[in-house]
Specification:
This protein is α/β, with parallel strands linked by helices. The chain is built from nine helices and 26 strands. It has a five-stranded parallel sheet, with helices on one face. The protein has a five-stranded parallel sheet with strand order 11-22-12-13-18, with helices on one face.
Length: 416
């Protein structure tokens, strides 16, 4: 089977690219291993809601039109939104078609699937950034009596046994799960490494509203000092809740969650934690205040100080004077370890020499270092908002324009 372009993945990013390809009359097919929005269907916990307000879900030719623009979609609503988008744009999706291999050919690419082999001139990798949960090597040293699972496997507290829970990771996922599990009656300890604190509401407006109007979400990859660093920054400590509450470390300690430093090792049945907890929290507070400074400066410059609440700063993160540096794992105090230390993409099927030593695709703003290959949906791909639903439109527009130019000039030799 032959087509001009193959898009791998029918989530919001792949569908946004499909819309732009159709607008340019570029024949294509979207290959999806499961159903449309498969990751949202199968790899999320039950209570999860989007971290962005409903109005911020803006896809090419499609946006929110409901009665609750400032609310936060739960997973069934998110899935329905993406499925309806696929139908609205008549995306040529082939569901239940798993890609097993992508190879370079003289005139483009060969894409092998469990439903047959395709040949194409260009290919778009939109399979997502959260395919494999990050579990550190120290997990192998856990005592046999301690249960372990990842945030991708977790669904709700009822699936956990009795006893204490160690949550490893304090970004958006870790803090949300720590709160939910603590409220279920289990004692939670959270291991805190690098993280970025953020209020849900600031000066009477949602923090994402501020980041949108002040241009923070539109910061470009080619206009910042260290894009590699920016692409690895943890997600903001946010939760999309009906009461718009801030879920940061202060809220967790207020609920009784115990803070410890980054999990450094497990030896002789004992978890050992870094002594940098206070430094990490102070750095996180500093980053939050820099963001609020930028917002305040924008509000003043644009003359809206009188239309919103006054500027203010939040209480620093509270940290015990002497946080624990170790916890025994064999005495029953910790019965479950929940890994919430982030995710990574899975490119085990990509047999084109474009991966770096860490298994990441080498690219320049989504233009992969192999002519005719593109990326969609990764953090800070082209803009700070690239991994959000709202970021897919601008990225797809830019990359589809580049792709069309590649087709106009003929598929050249790979740059590798």
């Amino acid at each position: 089977m032959r087509v001009t372009t193959i898009v791998i993945g029918a989530g919001h990013a792949g569908l946004a690219m499909s819309h732009c390809l159709t607008a340019r009359s570029i024949d294509h097919v979207v290959l999806e291993r499961g159903e449309v929005a498969n990751s949202w269907r199968t790899e999320r916990w039950d209570s999860l809601r989007l971290l962005t307000p409903n109005w911020l879900s803006r896809l090419p030719g499609y946006h929110y039109e409901g009665a609750d623009p400032d609310g936060f979609r739960d997973m069934p609503e998110t899935i329905d939104f993406i499925v309806r988008y696929a139908a609205a744009i008549s995306a040529p999706v082939r569901t239940h078609t798993s890609v097993t291999s992508v190879l370079r050919t003289d005139d483009g690419y060969e894409v092998v699937t469990d439903q047959g082999t395709w040949r194409c001139r260009t290919v778009v990798l939109a399979s997502g950034a959260c395919n494999v949960p990050c579990v550190p090597p120290v997990a192998e040293a856990l005592p046999s009596g301690v249960r372990t699972l990842t945030s991708m496997e977790y669904r709700n507290p009822d699936m956990l046994g009795p006893g204490g829970v160690l949550v490893v990771g304090a970004s958006a996922t870790g803090t949300q799960l720590a709160e939910e599990i603590q409220r279920s009656g289990r004692q939670v300890t959270i291991a805190v490494g690098e993280h970025i604190r953020a209020p849900r509401v600031y000066r009477g407006r949602d923090i994402k509203w501020w980041m949108d109007v002040a241009g923070v979400l539109d910061d470009r990859y080619d206009e910042i000092d260290d894009v590699n660093r920016a692409r690895n920054v943890p997600s903001l400590q946010l939760a999309g809740s009906t009461d718009r509450r801030t879920v940061d470390l202060n809220r967790l300690t207020g609920l009784g969650v115990r803070l410890v430093g980054r999990l450094a090792a497990i030896a002789d049945g004992r978890a050992q934690f870094s002594g940098s907890l206070r430094n990490q929290c102070e750095l996180s507070d500093l980053k939050m205040n820099r963001l609020l400074d930028r917002i305040d400066a924008w509000a003043t410059e644009h003359g809206i100080d009188g239309k919103v609440g006054p500027p203010h700063r939040f209480e620093p993160t509270r940290v015990d004077a002497v946080p624990p540096l170790g916890i025994p794992l064999r005495g029953g105090e910790i019965r479950t370890v929940l890994w919430a230390a982030g995710y990574r993409p899975d490119y085990s099927w990509l047999h084109v020499p474009v991966l770096d030593r860490k298994g990441r695709v080498r690219h320049d703003g989504g233009v992969v270092h192999s002519t005719g290959m593109y990326l969609m949906g990764l953090p800070f791909l082209r803009r700070r908002k690239s991994s959000l639903i709202d970021g897919a439109a601008a990225d797809a527009h830019d990359l589809c324009k580049h792709l069309a130019g590649c087709l106009d000039h003929g598929t050249a030799r790979s740059r590798d």
